[in-house]
Amino acid sequence: MPDDILVDVNNSDDIVTARQAGHQLARRLGFSLTDVTMIATAISEIARNITSYAGRGAIKVAVADREGRKALVVRAEDGGPGIADIDRALEDGYSTGRGLGLGLPGARRLMDRLVVESTPGRGTVVEMWKWTPSNE
Questions:
Q1: How far apart are CA 66 and CA 69, in angstroms?
Q2: Predicted TM-score (pTM) of this structure
């Protein structure tokens, strides 16, 4: 099974598929059950943002180097309306839609890093990662 998994996210079924992809890769990498659950939950939050705000997008789950360390990396991309104020979008309780405003801030708390790049009218890229467990 490859370490790069790409899931098109167009509906709620795809949120489950993306979550499962992250869950499976995290298990293979030796993450604790708690970390596996946090990774899967963070993927669900980001995928739900795609279906709620952009309508369609994609999530890639992979192993990559970040800041000189090996990490499970989740990259979500969409061509939606974008985020006008990223700092505000990362605040608990802030939502431009009908949500609770927990998606991005919640995902940021669950992962080791979360980076958002967005241009209004051009879509959003969210990249988040969790350091892989050391085998020493």
A1: 5
A2: 0.92
